[in-house]
Amino acid sequence: MTRLTPYLSFPGTAREALTFYQEVFGGELVLNTFGEFGRDDGPAEAIAHGMLRGPVDLFASDAASGEPGVRLEGVLFALLGTAEPATLEEWFAALSDGGIDLDPLQARPWGDHDGQVTDRFGVRWLVGYQG
Question: Transmembrane ranges (predicted)?
Answer without folding.
Answer: none
